[in-house]
Write a structure and sequence with these properties.
- This protein is of the alpha/beta class and 317 residues long.
- It has a single domain, classed as Ribokinase (UDP-N-acetylmuramoyl-L-alanine:D-glutamate ligase), CATH 3.40.1190.20.
- It has helices at residues 39-50, 65-72, 111-124, 145-152, 164-172, 186-193, 197-202, 204-216, 255-268, 273-288; strands spanning 2-6, 10-17, 29-37, 54-59, 77-80, 87-93, 99-103, 130-134, 158-161, 181-182, 221-225, 231-235, 238-243, 307-311.
- A 10-stranded mixed sheet has the order 5-4-1-8-9-10-11-12-13-14, with helices on both faces. The chain has a 4-stranded mixed sheet with strand order 3-2-6-7.
- Helix 6 packs across helix 8.
- The protein is globular.
- The two termini are 29 Å apart.
- The model has no long low-confidence stretch (mean pLDDT 93).
């Protein structure tokens, strides 16, 4: 089972435009879609599509429409009550695949809600193959919360996908809270290691060396998504780069979440590292070809189209 925490879930609304976005003008949309979102939620939705057992832990009232919608999609939920309405994230999608995201902060998380979430995760982690901590933290949650959760789940395989202050706080505490997997993108990785983000996005070898710094500090594996340049995987065994297959990009929102799920799925199937990376990139590319935050079905994912090469990187862990 894959246990996910979405600390700051959202109603994801996508507005598709027929023409490029023109600031300050009035434009007509070709479609508007709404889906339950948040990084952990997206991974749980991908689990359902692939037939992988999952449980989504999230702060929301039991009778919230968000929870009902997830349940209707087949996602088993563990909602933890907290006051306030869930946030709405807006995505504007242009014809060439360019996406503009407007994310709201979300309701303030209370200490009671946070304590209940910790209790739920600890009680269910033993029966889970992976525990995924994903997305931003809401107001009221301290930036070091993910690091604290990793430290309180020492016997579990924990994957973390976050950014900004929570990501920095996690890396500052790797000596006591190193997760089994981290999934930054190139710019997020650069913010941690002092490298140039544009260079890491465009240079897989440079990204692998930067990711190797985290592996040397105790992280089990680092999966770095590089957009059109594919992704890099670094672990104690070595480093690999996978080029992204040709894809007609519709929306990049949620593609990184699908990449993370592809990697997790490959570990459940006990695939070799290069094959894990291939499935991760195949999932991410498939998601980029779908509207909004739609997650791909296994029939839409073809890892045979992904070319993986080993990189020359020696790690002293």
């Amino acid at each position: 089972m894959i246990l996910t925490l979405t600390a700051n879930p959202s109603h994801d609304r996508t507005i598709a435009l027929a023409d490029p976005l023109r600031r300050g003008s009035v434009q007509r949309a070709t479609s508007v879609t709404s889906q339950p979102g948040g990084k952990g939620v997206n991974i749980s939705r991908a689990c359902v599509a692939a037939g992988v057992p999952t449980l989504a832990v999230l702060p929301a009232p039991d009778d919230d429409p968000f929870v009902h919608e997830l349940t209707a999609l087949g996602v088993a939920c563990c909602p933890v009550d907290q006051p306030g309405s869930l946030r709405v994230n807006l995505t504007i999608s242009e014809p060439d695949g360019t996406t503009t995201k407007l994310n709201s902060p979300g309701p303030r998380m209370t200490e009671e809600t946070r304590a209940t979430i910790v209790q739920e995760l600890r009680s269910r982690a033993a029966e889970s193959d992976w525990v995924v901590l994903a997305g931003s933290l809401p107001p009221g949650a301290p930036p070091e919360w993910y690091a604290e959760l990793v430290a309180t789940l020492p016997d579990s395989r924990v994957a973390v996908d976050t950014s900004d202050a929570p990501l920095v706080a996690l890396v500052e505490r790797l000596e006591v809270a190193a997760p089994a997997l981290m999934k930054p993108n190139g710019h997020e990785l650069a913010s941690l290691t002092g490298h140039d983000g544009d260079r890491l996005e465009a240079d897989p070898t440079a990204a692998a060396h930067a990711a190797g710094e985290l592996v040397r500090r105790g992280v089990g594996a680092v999966l770095v998504t590089l957009g059109e340049h594919g992704a890099v995987l670094v672990d104690a065994e070595g480093a690999w780069h996978a080029a992204a297959p040709p894809t007609t990009v519709v929306s990049t929102v949620g593609a990184g979440d699908s990449s993370l799920f592809g990697y997790l799925l490959a570990t459940l199937e006990e695939r070799a590292p290069a094959d894990r990376l291939a499935l991760a990139v195949a999932y991410g590319s498939a998601a980029a070809g779908l509207p909004g935050t739609t997650v791909p079905r296994p029939s839409e994912v073809d890892p045979s189209r992904v070319e993986v090469s080993r990189l020359d990187l020696t790690l002293e862990v």
